[in-house]
Write a structure and sequence with these properties.
The chain is of the alpha/beta class. 34% of the residues lie in helices and 16% in strands. It has 3 helices and 4 strands. The chain has a 4-stranded parallel sheet. The relative contact order is 0.24.
């Protein structure tokens, strides 16, 4: 599994899509939970910033938006925690 930090996320998304990679973005307002999505193919996961999430343009450029269920008054998770949760699901689905 490769992890990348890039300067221009929208340019990177375009390049990945041109190379047949599906783009999944995490967003608390998404309709589907991360564990209900098929995460077995070539994919990239975009994690929004803590509290602010992703920009409108980045959301629009994602093929799918997925969310992590939240309970109580907490509305967002630490970005590394979100990445770990979704990455674990990718690995689990591929086993």
């Amino acid at each position: 599994m490769k992890i990348a930090r890039v300067n221009n996320i929208n340019d990177t998304i375009k390049m990945l899509k041109d190379n047949d990679v599906w783009i999944y973005g995490t967003d608390m307002d998404a309709e589907k939970y991360y564990y209900d999505q098929d995460l077995k193919g070539a994919l990239a996961i975009v994690i929004g910033s803590e509290g602010f999430g992703m920009s409108r343009l980045v959301k629009e450029n994602c093929d799918f938006l997925i969310k992590i269920p939240m309970k109580g008054k907490v509305t967002s998770l630490n970005a590394s925690v979100s990445a770990g949760i979704v990455t674990y699901e990718v690995v689990k689905q591929r086993d």
